[in-house]
Records
---
Amino acid sequence: MTPVSSKLYADDVSLLMVLVDTNPYFWSSMKNTAFTFPKFISHVLAFLNSILLLNQMNQVVVIATGYNSCDYVFDSSTSSMQRAECLLEKLEDFVDKDESLSQEDSVDGIGFSLLSGSLSMALCYIQRVFRSGPLHPQPRILCLHGSPDGPGQYVAVMNSIFSAQRSMVPIDSCVIGSQHSAFLQQASYITGGVYLKPQVSDGLFQYLSTVFATDLHSRSFLQLPRPVGVDFRASCFCHKNTIDMGFICSVCLSIFCKHHKKCSTCGSNFGEARKQDPSASDQRTSDGS
Amino acid sequence: MADGKLVKRTKYKTSVKVPGVPGVLKLTKERFYFMPNDPTLTTKLNVEFKLIKGHKSSKECSSKQALLNLTQAQGGNYLFEFDSFPDRDQCRDFVASAIAACGEIGKATSEKPAVPHDEQLSATEMGRRIKLLQENSELQKLHRQLVIGGILSEAEFWAARKKLLEQSENKKPKQRVALKNDMWSVKPLSDGQTNRVTFNLTPEVIHQIFAEKPAVRQAYLKFVPGKMSEKEFWTKYSRAEYLHSTKNIVAAAAEAAEDEELAVFLKQDDMLVSEARRKIRRVDPTLDMEADEGDDYMHLPDHGLPQGETKEILEPQYEPFKRSFSQYLNQHAAVVLRGRVIDVELGDTRSVAEAFTRTYQAEQATEVSDENAYRERVKKVSQVAEIEDLQGPRDPPVALLSIKDPRDYFDSQQANAIKALGDAETGIRQMKFSVSKEEAFCSLKDSISEINSQGLIEPIISPEVALKVFNGLSQNISSTKYHLGKNPHESVLDQLPSATKNELLLHWTSIQELLKHFWSSYPITTKYFYAKVTRLKDAMSQIYPKLQLMFQEIKESVQSDVRHQVSLLVQPMLQALDAAFAHYDADIQKRSAKSGERPNGFV
């Protein structure tokens, strides 16, 4: 994995962007298990406090990833919201707002939370910090995510991942749901962060403090969990399905699950010749990326 | 050549020295004809290629004749001289293919051992093969087993490895002849009696002069052949050299005043001077030449070279005619070290001169302008003598592109497959779940207010769970560290005793080799292929029981958990052999069914 380069300034001061999954459908599904939302919040708050105690210049920003929207719920650098109560208050307001934005009455299954939105917000915040001056803490993003991947967000999420890679911000991910997240696997893989799916959800705090608490500089000296495999499958642009094999536009690299006459992204016309030979050039396997 | 015919004008000779009979050579696939231009002559030829054993040709060189020599199997030869080398080469290639074709047909029709024509191997080709075998012990083993065991012929074995041979050939670029390291190649020869002084100029010497003295080169391009002939030019040059060798600067200046062309040679080379200036600019800026002044030969006049140059004080008007020995030495050294920069035949003086000018101009073009050069120099100085504390913030360093071990990819694929199995169960559970919007949001809000009212859960984590997590994590990390990226097959092989492992690997490579030859022989079009397939099949059926026996042995000796993996290794080999046998049998049956209707021996 590519080492994350240090950005000057004291190398052990961190800016931690925590994306908390507040998808109500996901947490409803977890209600009957041992790991409930209050428990989750307790673990996360304890972790955030320990981050702030590690270095007095450390900064923590929490972004709630809702079902319809996302928002900042906590920022340790603003004096007005320095306590946990503030976070909960803000979180409550956020859930209210999220509900008012909701249009459909019920969702099949767990539904997807707006990961692409919160990732973009985190990156915007980090960009602002980068531009504030030469002295800034080292940023990283931690996704605490439980909802399954929304294939419809594929392009947006990938774009966020690549912009994070460009600005050398690692995306750590801790999956608290029952499924692995291909998006977050790729995000951590590409940006050089850590991907982890805790086996014992009760011990979330232990996982967080052991794996995700160390600053980027110290990481180079540590053996952190490495993913055994990364799911590189992509979503097609036409139906937003996750596919193993499909068609790819030779001009703009858009991915489709079926053959189209014209690329919906860039408008290139695909030739007729390949009809006789469907196994020809446009075929691809997504794992090759 | 495409229509199987080639006609060329040539001379037929009985030996190299005789002038030969001019005529026309006509080549077809089976035979060649020679018709003399003079129909009265009796030197007509009509020879079958079957009788021709080999061919030789003269080296391509402007001074030599373009000869092609066809040697007869019963001794004796046919010698042809062509007008040009391309003509000769075309005929040679045609003859080579014709001989090869005849050889194949001839051997296929005769019932002799069905080995393809063993083309005349040159010593270098042979050496290359031997070297490859020496370098690669696996290849050597295979070679010993298959070729010396008589299963494959030498040519067949190497035909499959043409690439390997080519690679080893490409590794060594052809050696290029460097310039002579001789400075005094233009030596005047005087016969002592008359006042004549002779200079001996060869193309090689001219090349050297052009390389070392750009001014002479420029003068040559300017004067020859417009103003004077080539001979006049070199005479003038020689005269200038002679004047220099006498070291009589005053006399040289006097001569130069009379003849402006001669002056070009006698004056200092302007181009060299400007080039020297340019070179000095490119010297490492941190090098302090003044600080080194006390070193070695600097205190001696003329750098300590034993050259008794005239030390008389010259008037300034003679200054341009002075030539320092060390300058000459340096220039010569620079040219020799650079090696041959042009790739032109030395015979044509003009083209040599032009080629030099071209390369010189190309160099000039790539040189940066003065301003850029200055900037570059400043940059270099700051790079070499950098004080870290005074540097501004650097750009983020670029992460190098690291191409990963492809094995990681396959391992991850395997992990994905395993994961997919596990995920399938959770997927089913998830689908059943469905709640309304109000319910979901209400429960989330309830949870938040629950925290508000009851406070955080305390303790957050029980010591037992923490220990469990900690142990699990460290185990996970250490296991991925040691097992990641390892091919599971390798580990199985490593568990076997080394003798068995080697034997297994040898079987595997030889089976692969045999199968490659086996399948490439189909469809069987000639008797030769038929014989080869039979040979290969016999060899394979010998290996088959050996492999089975070994498999049994391994099965008995190793533990049950490895057994499955070993069988995963061996089974594909046996299956591949089975497929080959089945194809062979089917082919034989088809053949025998057909041969009933056809005359015997028809292939």
---
Amino acid sequence: MGNKTDIQYLAPVDIELRQQNKYCRFKKMGIDYIDYKDSEFLMRFLNAQGKILPRRITGNSLKFQRRLAVAVKRARQIALLPYVADNLK
Amino acid sequence: MTTYETVFIMNPVLSEDQVKETVKKFVDQIKANKGKITNEENWGLKKLKYAIQKKKTGFYNLIEFQADGQMINDFEVELKRDERVIRWQTVKLEKFALAYADRRKKKLSTNSKTE
């Protein structure tokens, strides 16, 4: 017999997991040029293995995701960012 | 006269004045081809994120210059021929990149919204 305090929900409580509305951080902050030289900023868009995060995770708009990809590849060329890493963060 | 920006990495075994001499050599070559140096930065010895030619560190240097396109090819041939330089990258600066470079030179905040 479940005691009084033990509340059982009939319908599963839907917890809002997804971050509300993703925004493109470049549009919001008014950044128009992604510099390939400051690697700390670019590091935020890489995962632990040094791969570029997809748009659905970062919420970037298509225009800036492409510029970001170009910047990251240039940074990798001059060894500011690794091609492959295991513990980047 | 389009603006270009070249970042190149030099061999870490070089001494300080050899680094200066290498940079001077490229600066003179740009000047010889009627180019104009607008900015020059020396980032010094930095750790490379992956080994280049079995070396873990390198002297980084940036030269931002205005030149016409024809001289870039033989500028890069010179970079390729020089053993002291182990990696280089020349980038053409477009509209936004130019504005960014100017802000960076004046050490302002580097995004345009806060102007």
